[in-house]
């Protein structure tokens, strides 16, 4: 497959004077989406009790969102390229606000689950449109580094902010406010985007929509995400779980085959076969696997083992947020135009792995100040440093017409990584916990001793899983050092190419 070259551009237009204002509204929207991934977790026990949701069905409050979001991301990215990123962005925000209002007002289980699926669907429109708007609006290499530094900090730290906000809302108001809080975020971001964002002309991909690609990618990703979710609750050897993984592999293989044949593919294979972007998607997915599992374990450790309140638990994550913001804006953004990306991302993942290595030493009586504080600071610093160039390089060298779907691939790797991380590391922790109880419960003669063994078993399970997360981060660093070879000059020339292409007449892909 090859593509015709764009017509020669006239002199590149001056950068949009409103681009920094636009970044503020894009950042608000991204924060809302990332917050929603964790804020509902803290409110889930209260919502379950209030609406009478069974233990077997409570996972669907999380799963319904994950399935819709993960399954529709590529479709959402393509819609942004076809329909216009600004229009898709605003539509996603309005829909997300409406779905959040429905969830907050839910009077039964079905309404709550339906609202979560709707949130996921509109999030799949919103997230790739936000990232691709940055890609086409910030064309100067240094400005692009700053913009993606801010975006990367939000993408990495927003989940921890969600734990703090979720704790406050659940403890001092009620669980419904974890939904209602999205409405002001969405209204402000949508109004600001409507009046401030001016999408560069000529950057759309007006090729016909690839319907077979949409169906195969959506079904394949839904089967994959649901397979990992089901593996966590039902076991990896359960027949339905295995069937979902087999179906996902077949559907995604068929998707790749179709994309290599059609004239206007949903996901042009040129987007993912580039070694830099391929390395970004793989390493970012692995890093999210490690990170999502850790969020879960630390939350349970602090609330169940240490007895922290939801608010205190949220505040305990502040050092990680501070580390992410520092790594992203003060290290990643400042060095990205001077240092090869692999020398930021690789060491960043290794520093994060070192932070997790510190956390493998946790015990029931571990001190927050001497163990968790340094561990989370290192983790945040490393992830922030790595996330920033990753977010920028995900659209490196991508034509403006492909920026939506390239951005969607970043979100897809994160979403699938989150589903895998939660299921995989939870299973490892549960197995280690069960084995510890079996080996030690016989020596506990009193009830208090048995309770102590149960707590020790939980901590043992967490540390075992975190060891696996350390290994996963080291693997992510190895992928970066092997595949990512972009230099600072590549980033600058890519930005210039995008700027020059914005007013081009884009010619659809021609298959040969």
UniProtKB/TrEMBL annotation:
Q: Which CDD domains is this protein grouped with?
A: MFS_MMR_MDR_like
Taxonomically, which superkingdom?
Answer: Bacteria
- Name of the protein in its database record: MFS transporter
> Where do the Major facilitator superfamily (MFS) profile domain residues begin and end?
22-489
One matching Pfam family: MFS_1
User: Its Gene Ontology molecular function terms?
Assistant: transmembrane transporter activity
The record describes its membrane topology as: Multi-pass membrane protein
Q: GO biological process: what's one of them? A: response to antibiotic
Q: Which organism is it from?
A: Streptomyces apricus
Which InterPro entries does the UniProt record give? Answer: EmrB-like (IPR004638), MFS (IPR011701), MFS_dom (IPR020846), MFS_trans_sf (IPR036259), Sugar_transporter_CS (IPR005829)
GO terms for CC?
plasma membrane
Q: Which ranges does the record mark as transmembrane?
A: 22-44, 59-76, 88-106, 118-138, 150-169, 175-197, 209-228, 240-258, 279-302, 314-331, 343-362, 368-391, 465-484
Q: Which PANTHER family match?
A: BLR6921 PROTEIN, MAJOR FACILITATOR SUPERFAMILY MULTIDRUG TRANSPORTER MFSC
Compartment(s) where it occurs, according to its Swiss-Prot or TrEMBL record: Cell membrane
Q: Which UniProt keywords apply?
A: Antibiotic resistance, Cell membrane, Membrane, Transmembrane, Transmembrane helix, Transport
Signal peptide start and end residues? none
